[in-house]
Amino acid sequence: MSGQGGTSLGLTAPAGLNAEGIAEDIRRERRNLRLLASPALGLVLVLIIGPMLWLFYLSFYNEHGQFTFEHYARMFDEGAYFTIFWTTFEVSAIVTLFCALLGYPLAYLLAQMPARWANIVMLGVLVPFWTALLVRTYAWLVLLQRRGLVNDTLVSWGIIDQPLALVHNLTGTLIGMTHVMIPFLVLPLYATMKTIDPNLLRASGSLGASPTRAFWSVYYPLSAPGLYAGMILVFIFCLGFYVTPAVLGGGRVIMIAQRIDNSVSLYPSWGAASALGVVLLLITIVLMVVGLWISKLARR
Asked: Where are the domains of the chain?
């Protein structure tokens, strides 16, 4: 039975337990959380938001300190900028596709292996993080050049008669960037796959589904959010690549980051480079919003 001030189970509620007190506790907890987060937020404001606002300010001023839109107008007037942006998005999209095609089977293999062996194989995925980007890029340059290990091996085996042009072009750029970016797809995808209950596949098999149908009907939809998250991460990182296209592209593959570097040395002010950075940042934000929307749809 319930008594005065009690519940249906006969438990008496504390005297101070009311809506106003609970609301005050929630407000107090939020204030404490803001205080705890304030150092990190201040660091983000100083190191990230501040420089971004400074670049946005510089993009509207010329070398004489006059307010102008000429840096943005130049992007529409000169066709070279359109080509650079197109190359950047094209390379980023192709690298993202290659990472998905190579990374999904690798992540699936890691998820199906026993934990002991999966940890050993995971070390191979993480090794690129332990090596400097410039070192990895020049290693690919040594491997892929005309007298490099790849061409010498193919010629000695009689597969080709003449060395292939694998560097200082789009091919070398794609190979180098894919090698650098593939861990960024495997790690979030592997984390998603590890949360999938293997009993779901067994249940679908017991209901008459073939292994192929069970994979595409059950496993792939459950792993899709991790795949999309990894692809978004890879694509956005590729937009700002500089070292790998500069070394393996040999000046034939010009991306936005390289153009920003050229603008710094070409123009007397940082306005032109800042405008390119602002446009790239805005495009990246739009793509992130679209990617998050697609990821939410995949979860549903």
From this structure: 20-58, 71-299
Rounded CA gap, 20 and 248, in Å?
65
CATH homologous superfamily of domain 71-299? MetI-like (1.10.3720.10)
Residue 181 pLDDT greater than 90, yes or no: yes
What DSSP character marks residue 12?
B
Instruction: Supply the pLDDT for residue 298.
Output: 65
Overall size of the chain counted in residues = 300
CA separation for the pair 234, 178 (Å, rounded)? 9
Give, to the nearest 10 degrees, the angle between helix 170-194 and helix 115-126: 150
Contacts (Cβ under 8 Å, ≥6 apart) of 129: 183
Angstrom CA distances, 19 to 6, 8, 22, 157, 198, stand at: 16, 19, 5, 80, 44
Of the pLDDT bands very low, low, confident and very high (cuts 50, 70, 90), residue 73 is confident
Structural contact between residues 34 and 27, judged by C-beta atoms closer than 8 angstroms: no
CA 271 to chain CA centroid, nearest Å: 27
Enter the pTM of the model: 0.81
Average pLDDT (231-253) is: 90
For the chain, the C-alpha Rg in angstroms (whole number) is 27
Tokens 């107090």 map to which residue?
28
Identify which of 282, 278, 91, 97 has the alpha carbon closest to the alpha carbon of residue 290.
282
Please give the sequence-ordered ranges of beta strands (E in DSSP) within the chain, or none if there are none.
none
Region 109-138: mean pLDDT is 86
Burial annotation 265-284 (CB, 10 A radius, 16+ → b, else e): eeeebbbbbbbbbbbbeebe
Give the closest residue to 186 by CA, choosing from 113, 139, 129, 122.
Answer: 122
Q: Which two tokens stand for residue 59?
A: 């993009």
